[in-house]
Hints:
The protein is of the alpha/beta class. The protein has a domain at 2-18 and 71-113 and 237-449: Rossmann fold, CATH 3.40.50. It contains 19 helices and 15 strands. α2 crosses α11 and α6 (143-154) packs parallel to α8. It is globular, with a radius of gyration of 21 Å.
Amino acid sequence: MSKSVGGTKILLEERDIPTRWYNIQADMPNPLQPPLNPATKQPAGPQDLSPIFPMELIKQEVSTDRWVEIPDEVRELYRLWRPAPLYRARRLEQALDTPARIYYKYEGTSPAGSHKLNTALPQAYYNKQAGIKRLATETGAGQWGSALSIACSFFALECQVYMVKVSYNQKPYRRLFMETYGASVVASPSNLTVAGRHILAEHPDSPGSLGIAISEAVEDAATRDDTNYSLGSVLNHVLLHQTVIGLEAKTQLEKVDDYPDVVIGCCGGGSNFGGLSFPFLHDVFTQGRKVRVIAAEPTACPTLTRGKFAYDFGDTAKLTPMMMMYTLGHDFMPAGIHAGGLRYHGDSPLVSQLYHDGFIEARAYNQKDVFAAAVLFARHEGILPAPESAHAIKGAFEEALAAKEAGEARTILFGLSGHGHFDLSAYEAYLTGMMEDVPYADEDLARSMANLPEIK
Length: 456
Ligand SMILES: *Cc1c(COP(=O)(O)O)cnc(C)c1O
């Protein structure tokens, strides 16, 4: 028996839940490039967004105020599970035999099982305030749909979820989870929209994609006065809401008199990564602190490590505004890896700009290595991680082993964005040796990159 070290949970009081979100647009050295109207290619103004978003969220999208007040109604609901725990991973440190101190901020204690409820609640709140009766959205693996279903039930909004057909068939429990909270869930492509009917006419057996589901949800919202659209990642206001993660983590580390040398998050659309890391980048920008910030992504969808910084569409059908971001091309089809939440061709414009300017590093990992890290983590820390979150675990392992090789202490903070209780078929594939690494083909990437829109 090795020396008992026990994990350390660093808790806060309810009064420590942040009262304001942090807006990094106030501090970043180079401002964002504006989104462009997909038809005119001119900068998109509020009038381009108001058919599908409430004005309060449009304002947050473009705001350069450093702090944005969290409404009391939202903060009250955050109290359901916030402040979220921060753990010192002592058993893991011992297993890795590293001099590094490893901390992780766990967002899986939310009723939705991930960080996504942090933004679903304010999005539902602002839509309710604006007199909206119904929200339409897409979901891939089902995590975002789950969070929005809960938020809509709290604010008595109808919730229409377009769920990528392959996930709809593979993940019946995710669908039932959403339906329990009152959401209507339909497999996408569906016959509820022109976009869906069009695809079904041409490809009756289409498995669907996130790009198609976004097109359906946007069309639904744009064609009904009582309905708005809601997006679970990528946009500036989504990352703004997620900063409660990093703000709490900072307070928790202060309590144990520590501060990270390196902050790591998994990065799909960038919301949990930005939410954890931006409050630390605030210290980099305003106090000259030195913090390394690392985004972890899958090699099967290597947006930051292999993509291009360019204007591109957010969806396959080219309905959304064009955004300046790292992208693999809007028609890039990532392989069906198990971390469904990281299979997005683009990335948050905020994360993209900061990566472009050298404030963020990025690493890409193969899914078998990621699951090996997830299983080791589960066996030492007791929490079964979401496959997405396990990319951050893998990143933390690399840093911890580098610290060991260099023989130096190092404080590592990573984001554990959610639990993997709905992902056990992925664990089954790994544990039975059926999981494969699925790199993208260079020709496919070259083809989708050639389809980037031309600007001027
Ligand atoms: C959706 C999701 C992600 C990826 O989305 P981001 O916007 O990049 O955070 C990561 N982890 C979990 C658990 C998710 O549900």
